[in-house]
Amino acid sequence: MPGINEVALAAGVSTATVSRALSGKGHVSAATRERVLAAAMELGYVVSSNASSLATGRTKNVGVVIPFLNRWFYGSVLEGAEQALLGHGYDLTLYNLSGGGENRRAVFEHFLLRKRVDAVIAISLELTPEEVSRLLEIDKPVVGVGGPLPGVRTLSIDDVEVARLATEHLLSLGHRKVAHIGGNVEMEHDFHLPTNRRAGYEAALEAVGLPVDPALFAPADFTIEGGYRAAKQLLGNPRNRPTAIFAASDEMAIGTMLAARDMGLRVPQDLSVIGIDDHELAEFFGLSTVAQFPAEQGRRAVEILMDQLHPATRELGSVDTPLHFELVVRSSTSRPEAERR
Amino acid sequence: MPGINEVALAAGVSTATVSRALSGKGHVSAATRERVLAAAMELGYVVSSNASSLATGRTKNVGVVIPFLNRWFYGSVLEGAEQALLGHGYDLTLYNLSGGGENRRAVFEHFLLRKRVDAVIAISLELTPEEVSRLLEIDKPVVGVGGPLPGVRTLSIDDVEVARLATEHLLSLGHRKVAHIGGNVEMEHDFHLPTNRRAGYEAALEAVGLPVDPALFAPADFTIEGGYRAAKQLLGNPRNRPTAIFAASDEMAIGTMLAARDMGLRVPQDLSVIGIDDHELAEFFGLSTVAQFPAEQGRRAVEILMDQLHPATRELGSVDTPLHFELVVRSSTSRPEAERR
DNA sequence: GTGAAAGCGCTAACAG
DNA sequence: CTGTTAGCGCTTTCAC
Are the beta carbons of A69 and B75 separated by less than 8 Å? Predict the structure, then answer.
């Protein structure tokens, strides 16, 4: 493992020149640069990021804090962020909170603070006020993705609008008994997403003069299984069976489709189903949905950080545009049977 | 951001003593330790991992190289590794290869070499010989999980045995037409898992004197959708329809179950299905499977590294035991209908 | 048990 | 354009 010294020696220059030649900062004549590069390559030299960080105060590393790994949304954001960071020459160190209380504390108390990162990306975190303050305390750029972080710049889709769009799609097809499967109350503890989506659903109903029927709401936990159970509940009702269900996530929507099938209902003839996300399985199931683009969100988060980290290079304009979403109509939604006859 | 100096000042000792007190290495009187700890806490001192790494040569950070994020197996291994590392006071920096060629090169050429990690965990990687040599070149402990890495210590289940067990389960129920959905040839490019599982399947058949019928094999890509398509192919055959299907992964097995349903076949009455993994959805679908424990594998990989990194603490014995797996019988397998009558 | 001092490997003024 | 010279913030001999 050669150090900068050997390279300097080999190239017949000082270490300072090597540093300049390799980093591109400061002027070096083309000729010497060549020699330095050649020597470095020859020796297989790579900078010690530690020494470099210590000298510059920058680590070229960003921390990503995430509540789960094995959920499509999180994995996708992470993937997008990782790509973007790599592209900028940054590493990504991962802090997964799913281990529970003790881990969680460790992350906030020790790890994030080790001066190891230049910035942090917090994905869909519901943090306690104390955790937020810890986060801000490190005094480094922080950006949130997909969750409301008080005091932190956050990237997320307009959940109310998205839900409203999904519901309107159903309404415009002629459905009047539109049920909703959304977050259960326990989850909502400071986590606005389910509430917002529910609000969007209700707003859409109200906009066309339909009452909001509490019997047409069922809570679930955002998993396929949860959606399955909630849907059975809704569909089992002999008197007031909905003709369409809007689920607050694709996974719950898929659970809904499976439940309908198990109950002998055809989708979409007997029941229309729409979700949110455009999960990787949505296409397979023919699920209509409102797509959001988590990988893109991860990438955007990185761009924002890079802007803050390197104010010189900033490309304004792209940063503040709202996150886009898109209605994707597949085969799980259609007009209600009654209207077709 | 206080440095070690302010702590030393506050505690009325030298920085050397602070270092000793905080790291626990070297003797410090209980009294001074107290004072130092108090001062550190008071000031909210955290070591600079860079300075520390520079001085010690150790980073307390391990790199994890992974081919995908959004697959249950990978995510689970990663999660297990992350937890274990956190527990040992290590950070985890993530290198995801899914970006394709360019990223891949960048990871191997620049990132891994930056002297930023003390060790690396390679998850299910199929590396080119060149990549392997790059990996070994960094001259740090490397352990592989779930993939064959020539020259690298690797943790993985015995795929032949696992497949054989799954197939035997089907055979023991009385099935004689047992089909297999496994990796397609293109994938096998140096990736032994599909081949091994297929070999286990064939071995089980041969052990009971059954011929291996090529018409009872269908290739797929390890996704639900791939399994669905392969199963339709197998089940559509009017003359030689299998009564049981062994899929090389749970995702393909789930696709198989969905295909059966769509074709009007009941599982398990008309078709038994078994997979491998014990994927998070397996229980929901009532899928029989051979469970492997990826999170555990991730944890184990970390233990092995810790043993190598801190030879003092080594707890031998646990390290070389083979990875366990376990037949989990749910409702997707039963005797073939013909035998029940 | 504790302090002084010499680096760890690099970068960033500052001269020249 | 390039070399000299201080550090960056810690750890770790080596004395005391």
Answer: yes
